[in-house]
Amino acid sequence: MAAGLRALLPPRGPFCRRVPFGGRCPRPVPHPGAPGGAREAVVPLGGGAGAAPEGGGAGRMAGVMAAAAVGMLLLRRGRPPPGLGPAPRRYRYKEKWAATAPRIPPTRLALHHFDVTYSLQLRDRWPSVRAGLLCEQKYGALLNNFSAVRHVAQELELLNATDFVSPAPKKEAGRGDGVSPEGSGEGRTAVRAETVTQAGTSPPLRASIRSNIRCYTFPRGDITRFRPARPDTLGLLDYYLMDAASLLPVLALNVQPDDFVLDLCAAPGGKTLALLQTGICVHLAANDVSISRTKRLYQILHSYVPREIRETVRVTSYDGRDWGQLEGGTFHKVLVDVPCTTDRHSVMEQDNNIFHRRRTKERQMLPMLQLQLLMAGILATKPGGEVVYSTCSLSPLQNEHVIERAVEVAETQYNISVQVEDLSHFRTLFQDTFSFFSDCRLGELVLPHLTANFGPMYFCKLRRM
């Protein structure tokens, strides 16, 4: 068709450029159809006022064909030809607004979401917690007891860092049984009694805290950074930098000799490494559903643990939700550090942010996933066994509500009685290092604070009866 149209158009001279239908040349050019003195020529459109078709019917046909070509061209560009209605839908041009409209970064979405929800939960404490989330996080140095370097503790003490775990047994020995820990009021006890069956105060933590775990932190208000870890002669690093609040769930687990321990969501490996530092965790299974995160776990073990100890750790990549069916009723202690909104990461980092618009559905399904993982942990324990549930989120929907729902589901669907252990003495033992939320209904919650910028970290202990 294009070849036929070109054949019907007026001839072009050797010095004439192609002229659009009905348009004028942008500058005077000679045209064979114009008089000798003319410097400008108009190419008429068939059927127009200036048309002079040659050959009668053939000329009119040429004009009709040219007009049809112009109409098709306008339709394809999304503009209707003169005198016609709107272009058919198939020829309309859709503006690429999604590529040009301003995008709200996920960090801003997360901060807005936290402003709306956490301001109601934390009330007057939210501004200070918000400032802590947006500032640089503090770290603790978990000493590697497998390293051959022995002067690390003295080096850290010269920098004014202290081990916050070692003084805990002395504090607990002096703690009276009838003394109510600071911040625990009647309202908190009443709410616990309404929601779940409370067990008595959990067994003393002396066995766990008197283990070999040592973690050094700088005092409140001191923002000194730790130097990078250094390898010893065997290539094992001398300490592991982690959020010191992440050590609290491990201490709450209270591992005893000969316990079979499961770390259900083990990667990237900080809590698994802390369990090994106790020196009494000889039957440890570390699982994570993510293959890439499991590789990170292998790297941590390879960098900090000698080969003969690594070989005793069973590392798997199963879906943690299925563990109750895989090895139900097997373990004495289970640590369930579930995926969560990772509040500090969400307001600071763009990469792998759960508040990205593509991950909205995933974020909304987090409480269900957390409940399934906690139920799998409960089913994996023996009767009398203990489960510690933990997140790094401030959200009650991911913390207390998951605990309440798990207790209910265990009772109604599995006929398993689960009791929530009292961990309020943790606030007395570690109040000099961490800032605790006194109104947490179940478990304990570490709040970020500018002077002690650890956390957030929520942990709660359950006992299967």
Explain what the structure shows.
The chain has 465 residues and is an alpha/beta fold. The chain is built from 19 helices and 14 strands. The chain is 36% helix and 14% strand. The strands form two sheets. Strands 3, 6, 7, 8, 9, 10, 11, 12, 13 and 14 form a ten-stranded mixed β-sheet that branches. The protein has a four-stranded antiparallel β-sheet with strand order 2-4-1-5, with helices on both faces. It starts with a helix and ends with a strand.
Outline:
The chain has 465 residues and is an alpha/beta fold.
**How big is the Rg?**
36 Å
SS content category: alpha/beta
- Could you list the spans in which at least 5 consecutive residues all have pLDDT below 50? 13-26, 28-55, 178-208
Find the count of extended strands (DSSP E, 2+ residues). 14
Shape: globular
Number of helices: 19
Largest sheet: 10 strands, mixed
Average of per-residue pLDDT values: 81
Helix percent band: 25-40%
Give the end-to-end Cα distance, rounded to a whole number of Å: 85 Å
Q: What percent strand?
A: 5-15%
